[in-house]
Specification:
single chain; about 200 residues; alpha/beta; Rossmann fold; five-stranded parallel β-sheet; globular; binds 2'-deoxycytidine-5'-monophosphate
Length: about 200
């Protein structure tokens, strides 16, 4: 039986952490859809045409160890504004969402475009300062020279681009549950999400 949990929201709000925890809790498959755009953006940085790159993406492209960098994140946000790139990645995401056994997908357009019929939708947010603090903590492990100011600017640029684009812009689905994680621990955010899904599964 298909059961889809759609998680959308701006960068570094906690979507991935909540998505992975929900998938583990319910035994569902998890797809971080940002990785599809990051892998496409990475290929563009290597000189490939982004549409051709998206059309020829393979599973191993999602394993490159520099996919999480700010540079690749910016490239991802740029290729994500190209309608043909989004189209090329659509069928894979839709099939994943409706796979037997349940699926959790996190991204920007899961509840609005990829799977409007998802059984549960979350729109995860956190304050700009908290998102920047978390992302800086994560990225500075690999790049100790990265400043908080650079991370703030990076998130601001990406969120503005992701929200303003014409195709599948970042916005909450009408029926999404808003989850502001600014003041929550990871455990609290996950417990809130689990309780919500359990409520809907029983419904
Ligand atoms: O979730 P992330 O930060 O890894 O995503 C990287 C970029 O990919 C993000 O800035 C916008 C784009 N993206 C998108 O447009 N749609 C998605 N479903 C997921 C990511």
């Amino acid at each position: 039986m298909a059961f889809t949990i759609a998680i959308d929201g701006p960068a570094a709000a906690g979507k991935g952490t909540i998505g992975r925890a929900l998938a583990a809790h319910f035994g569902f498959a998890h797809l971080d859809t940002g990785l599809l755009y990051r892998a496409t953006g990475r290929k563009m940085l290597q000189g490939l045409d982004p549409v051709a790159a998206a059309r020829s993406l393979r599973a191993e492209d999602l394993l490159a160890d520099d996919l999480r960098s700010s540079e690749v994140g910016q490239a991802a946000s740029r290729v994500a504004a190209i309608p043909e790139v989004r189209q090329a990645l659509l069928d894979f995401q839709r099939a994943f969402a409706r796979r037997t056994g349940g699926a959790v997908l996190d991204g920007r357009d899961i509840g609005t475009v990829i799977c409007p019929e998802a059984e549960v939708k979350f729109f995860v947010t956190a304050s700009d300062a908290e998102r920047a603090r978390r992302r800086h903590l994560e990225l500075s492990e690999k790049d100790p020279r990265l400043t908080l100011k650079e991370v703030v600017e990076d998130l601001r640029q990406r969120d503005a681009r992701d929200s303003a684009r014409a195709t599948a812009p970042l916005r909450p689905a009408k029926d999404a549950l808003l989850l502001d994680t600014s003041e929550m621990t990871i455990e609290e955010a996950v417990a809130t999400a689990v309780a919500e899904v359990e409520g809907r599964r029983g419904a």
